[in-house]
């Protein structure tokens, strides 16, 4: 019983944060939408009734531009006769993976460089912050397009490029938080006990600044999905025939498709819209839930 009480008193803030998050209805709706999209991506082979890369055929005739009304597919077919629904659920794998991996790379780089800059200060702080200023001088989308054009466009290159171009915001955030936290009593106590700088940073400092980092990573994932869609639409992102929500929107380049065959581009656009909006709702919910000032 005493152990149970002790455990309950150990992390009261976590339970309070979860209660505050549950009260945010938009955040819960956003979480439900993202969970559905992730499950659809995981179970894409089960959900899709046709191969997303093979044209449907009626004997020797390709069933092109068939709407859901006059076809055996849920969302009809694209201009090459491929099942739109199958491509949509397989594209969720690509778009979600790009967002997750790119944000993982940028967050790790930002945490490490921001921690070094904020904790040690001096020359390290000056060098890292000047690198941040240099990267911020270029529009991120413009920088990503240039690098993606020089390199061979592929899903792996896009993940790495986006991760290497989007770490500056996390680095500034971590630096600012560590400048505040490093003056706390428990940090001075760890220093007086002879703890190494590495242990102080990664065992005592960073765990206490994770709340804003989590919120920032959530917002970055929404931006990463949108960036990937933009790059794929421009032809420098995920390359065909690999399906992504962005390159599925290329169908809308044709005026006849844009006006007369909405089933070929509206579902992909709707998925991008719902994913970005839902992740932003989750980020807002996490920001409010993890804000220590709201704890009563």
Structure, explained:
Residues 1-10 have low confidence and may be disordered. It is built from 15 helices and two strands. The protein is elongated and about 75 Å long. The chain is 70% helix and 1% strand. It has helices spanning 2-10, 12-23, 25-42, 44-47, 84-120, 122-136, 140-150, 155-165, 168-181, 185-192, 197-205, 210-234, 245-248, 255-260, 266-289, and strands spanning 57-58, 61-62. It has one domain (21-43, 74-294): MetI-like fold. By secondary structure, the chain is an all-alpha fold. Strand 1 (57-58) and strand 2 (61-62) form a beta hairpin.
How is the topology of this model organized?
Blueprint (H helix, E strand, L loop, with lengths): L1 H9 L1 H12 L1 H18 L1 H4 L9 E2 L2 E2 L21 H37 L1 H15 L3 H11 L4 H11 L2 H14 L3 H8 L4 H9 L4 H25 L10 H4 L6 H6 L5 H24 L7
Antiparallel strand pairs: 1-2
Helix pairs in contact: 2-15, 3-5, 3-15, 5-6, 5-8, 5-9, 5-12, 7-8, 9-12, 10-11, 12-15
Give keywords.
mainly alpha, MetI-like fold, two-stranded antiparallel sheet, 1% strand, disordered N terminus
């Amino acid at each position: 019983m005493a152990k149970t009480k002790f455990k309950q008193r150990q992390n009261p803030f976590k339970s309070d944060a979860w209660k505050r998050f549950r009260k945010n209805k938009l955040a819960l709706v956003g979480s439900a939408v993202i969970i559905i999209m992730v499950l659809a991506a995981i179970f894409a082979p089960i959900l899709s009734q046709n191969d997303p890369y093979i044209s449907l055929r009626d004997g020797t005739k390709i069933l092109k531009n068939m709407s859901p009304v006059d076809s055996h597919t849920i969302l009809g077919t694209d201009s090459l006769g491929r099942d739109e629904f199958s491509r949509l659920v397989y594209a969720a794998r690509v778009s979600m993976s790009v967002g997750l991996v790119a944000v993982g790379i940028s967050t790790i780089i930002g945490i490490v460089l921001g921690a070094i800059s904020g904790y040690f200060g001096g020359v390290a702080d000056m060098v890292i912050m000047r690198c941040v200023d240099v990267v911020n001088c270029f529009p991120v989308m413009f920088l990503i397009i240039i690098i993606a054009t020089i390199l061979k466009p592929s899903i792996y290159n896009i993940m790495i490029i986006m991760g290497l171009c989007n770490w500056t915001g996390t680095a500034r955030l971590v630096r600012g938080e560590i400048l505040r936290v490093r003056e706390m009593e428990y940090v001075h106590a760890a220093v007086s006990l002879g703890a190494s700088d590495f242990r102080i940073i990664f065992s005592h400092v960073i765990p206490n600044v994770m709340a804003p980092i989590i919120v920032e990573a959530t917002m970055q994932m929404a931006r990463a999905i949108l960036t990937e869609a933009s790059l794929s639409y421009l032809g420098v992102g995920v390359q065909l025939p690999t399906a992504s929500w962005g390159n599925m929107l290329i169908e809308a380049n044709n005026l006849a498709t844009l006006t007369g065959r909405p089933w070929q581009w509206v579902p992909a656009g709707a998925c991008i819209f719902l994913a970005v909006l839902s992740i932003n709702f989750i980020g807002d919910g996490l920001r409010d839930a993890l804000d220590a000032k709201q704890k009563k």
